[in-house]
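A reminder from the course coordinator: this example appears on the midterm review sheet, so study it carefully.

Given structure:
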């Protein structure tokens, strides 16, 4: 295994279903990732994170695993995976897998056994409680809507699921479950995998079923299964395994607050870094707030400055495209966003297509929807709304936007497949594709290079200025100064009153990256989406 210098690295996230299809079935596959390794290497990243590729009924994009030791046939075979691992390492790229251990598929043999009877040896692998069809164990809700319980009339009990009913939660209190999971984790690490992205990891522990939900707003409904005390023991056991292999680990840890994040991610912490989910808060129309984004980022950066480490990202497979959420759809806005987060303190992740400025998909028909929970939501809305209104409502702020196929070229099907793509391709692919859209790609290359070449950017200190400015993000990374106007309007900054900028050393600032290079001035007017990176 290669050395785990996670503080210097940049990651690239691959949603395999939509990356590259090589056998014409319209579904991206492992051979497709292998084919595109040179592209990924050209970007300059250090590792790839691949969304789940395990055997799965694919009710939730592979986050419903029915065999932890097998690759889903849609993606290829274990041999293909070994080749991918080997070739990636030859390209100097580490590979981290998604580790989904909060739940399994309802088709996993453990659950099929568990369901058989109350005294089945696997019954306690999951969370079963006495219930009737009318009276479920409590009022808790699932993330995907509806009760977190599904009643089983055969055994007159209900099982708990934080996500879809096809994703029963494992009972982490059961040491046998933990041993099975740890065995599997070791198996993949032995195979040569470099680490994991830990899915929904903050949900492992649940409060007593008698807990009454205090608020149905915000994160209120998830309080009884988000970072609940007792989780420390499971995480400590997992950490021991990760450490013994020097694994690269990033936790998806919703509900872990920025003040708690240092304990999760410092030297004694469970994982190298965690994804915060707070900056994603959006209005119902899918728009994010620039100032909201800025405030969340500044808080996480400050709270993890002394101890701990951030995972930085704008997009992933669960979020709409950042160019439409925080930007105005323009390339200029995508570039400003790239600069705003790639030079922060932490390990940046780039989500496939983000480097091309891929946009949200203009849905016109419900036939274009693929996620089961989105389709269910749509069907529910049809009782009150017209088809068009319901479609508009479910797609205006949906993770579906992130999942359309990669746009490789202006050829048929954007060069993604020779068959019929499993999900429609964005109609803008003749303009927005890897062959034509090189400007943003090249900016990402430069930003990655800056991190690799400068310790100050990789792991130096960070200090924010103009904290209350509604649209301009300003920070120093030791000898670097980063200024980004994320707004559609001009902005003015007056550094002359800021103490750190009053001495003569500012005259040493020279431009290292810019949308329109010019010398640093204490009084600066910024064009919309202008960015300036200076170095002393
Ligand atoms: O997402 C989990 C996830 O986003 C929740 O843990 C989060 O706490 C909640 O939505 C916050 O409001 C992961 C995967 O990224 C997603 O694709 C899967 O559907 C999900 O887990 C289930 O495995
Ligand atoms: Ca395929």
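Designed residues:
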């Amino acid at each position: 295994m290669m050395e785990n210098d996670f503080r210097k690295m940049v990651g690239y996230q691959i949603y395999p279903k939509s990356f590259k299809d090589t056998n014409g079935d319209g579904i991206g596959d492992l051979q497709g990732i292998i084919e595109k390794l040179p592209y990924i290497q050209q970007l300059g990243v250090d590792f790839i994170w691949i969304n789940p590729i395990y055997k799965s009924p694919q009710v939730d994009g592979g986050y419903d695993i029915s065999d932890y030791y097998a690759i889903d046939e849609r993606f290829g075979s274990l041999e293909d995976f070994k080749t991918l691992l080997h070739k990636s390492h030859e390209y100097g790229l580490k590979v981290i897998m998604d580790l989904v251990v909060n739940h399994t598929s309802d088709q996993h043999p453990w659950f099929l056994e568990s369901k058989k009877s109350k005294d089945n040896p696997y019954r306690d692998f999951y969370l079963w409680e006495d219930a009737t069809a009318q009276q479920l164990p409590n009022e808790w809700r699932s993330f995907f809507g509806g009760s977190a319980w599904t009643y089983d009339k055969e055994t007159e009990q209900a099982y708990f699921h934080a996500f879809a009913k096809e994703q029963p939660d494992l009972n982490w209190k059961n040491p046998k479950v933990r041993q099975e999971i740890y065995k599997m984790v070791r198996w993949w690490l032995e195979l040569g995998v470099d680490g994991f992205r830990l899915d929904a990891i903050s949900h492992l522990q649940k409060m007593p079923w008698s807990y009454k939900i205090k608020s149905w707003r915000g994160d209120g409904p998830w309080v009884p299964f988000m970072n609940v005390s007792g989780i420390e023991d499971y995480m400590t056991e997992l950490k021991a395994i990760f450490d013994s292999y020097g694994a690269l680990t990033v936790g998806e840890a919703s509900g872990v607050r920025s003040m708690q994040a240092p304990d999760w991610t410092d030297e004694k912490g469970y994982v190298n870094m965690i994804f915060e989910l707070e900056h994603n808060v959006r209005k119902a129309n899918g728009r994010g707030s620039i100032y909201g984004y800025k405030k969340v980022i500044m808080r996480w950066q400050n709270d993890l400055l002394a101890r701990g480490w951030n995972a930085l990202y704008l997009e992933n497979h669960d979020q709409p495209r950042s160019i439409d959420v925080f930007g105005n759809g323009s390339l200029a806005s995508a570039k400003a966003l790239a600069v705003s987060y790639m030079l922060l303190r932490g390990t940046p992740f780039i989500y496939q297509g983000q480097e091309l400025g891929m946009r949200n998909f203009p849905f016109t028909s419900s036939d274009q929807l693929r996620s089961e929970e989105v389709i269910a939501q749509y069907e529910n809305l049809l009782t009150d709304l017209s088809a068009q209104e319901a479609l508009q409502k479910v797609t205006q702020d949906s993770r579906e936007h992130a999942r359309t196929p990669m746009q490789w070229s202006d050829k048929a099907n954007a060069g993604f497949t020779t068959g019929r793509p499993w999900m429609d391709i964005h109609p803008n692919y003749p303009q927005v594709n890897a062959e034509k859209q090189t400007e943003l790609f090249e900016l990402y290359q430069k930003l990655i290079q800056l991190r690799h070449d400068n310790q100050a950017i990789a792991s130096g200190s960070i200090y924010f200025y103009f904290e209350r400015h509604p649209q301009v993000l300003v920070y120093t990374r030791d000898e670097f100064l980063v200024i980004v106007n994320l707004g559609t309007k001009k902005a003015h900054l007056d550094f002359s009153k800021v103490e750190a900028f009053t001495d003569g050393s500012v005259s040493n600032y020279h431009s290292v990256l810019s949308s329109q290079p010019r010398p640093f001035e204490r009084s600066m007017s910024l064009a919309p989406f202008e960015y300036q990176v200076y170095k002393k």
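Residues 21, 23, 25, 27, 29 surround calcium ion (ligand 2) (CB under 6 Å). The chain has a mean pLDDT of 97.
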